[in-house]
């Protein structure tokens, strides 16, 4: 039996979507293993994981996020693998104590998975002793929009009382925490909405950080043209993405945004903040648009609204990029191959 300890926002979510945690569980179970999904934020200490391992007779572990997940699964006498998240390599690595902990986790891990070559290189520079055990596997993407989803009902719940035919709704899919920076574009969107009342930004996601959530709610309540909605079931979220005009990412740090990749798969344009994690999957003007500040975002978004040919080109290129670089089957084969590194210990 395998316990997958995920550093996610709820028991099934990872990096603000359900896709990664559920996918890994499916991959493990397809190989004949039993997989228990747990949220790393539900555990205060490794001893609690030890109790879980004993109670469920777990034989191995797979942890997402080198620090938050990895530190919980090490030292229990069972083999484990690590999947880098994003903030572990982009932020936690700059804190000496956390970096030491992560280095020790990598020493014990049987393998570690990076989403991109640049993430792998970053990890190898920081922890040279782990060079032989870090593998690159991009996220495999599959989307399942709910065919019964009603876009008009969604708009009503978001208190957008206009005909869907005349709207341009931009979706920002993220957990409400500072690293996702959901307020980054709020002022710019409000100004644009006052010029063009059919423009809206809808922020969708779980309330991860209670203190920050209060700040977000207060800001959005005062922001014309901006709406905030709670987390949605994955199939409904995919359907909402399919119906919106474009998906936005304004994160300060990303490993590999599933929301961006899912939007591409659903043939919806992407506008993403120009950070390394986003630039690794979004080629500006080809598979999406990258912006460096709110003003540039508005310029690019207006261009996308007024240029249907550009929209069609970006959508087609994004869909092809997903098909060629984010295969679900390739991802499954990689993880099932890596699981063999646990053999001999079970």
UniProtKB/TrEMBL annotation:
- Organism, scientific name: Otolemur garnettii
Keyword annotations of the record: Glycosyltransferase, Transferase
Glycosyl transferase family domain location is: 161-320
What's one Pfam family here? Answer: Glycos_transf_1
What is this protein's gene name? GLT1D1
Q: Which PANTHER family match?
A: GLYCOSYLTRANSFERASE 1 DOMAIN-CONTAINING PROTEIN 1, PTHR46660
Tell me a Gene Ontology molecular-function term this record carries: glycosyltransferase activity
Instruction: Give the signal peptide, or none.
Output: none
Tell me the protein's name.
Glycosyltransferase 1 domain containing 1
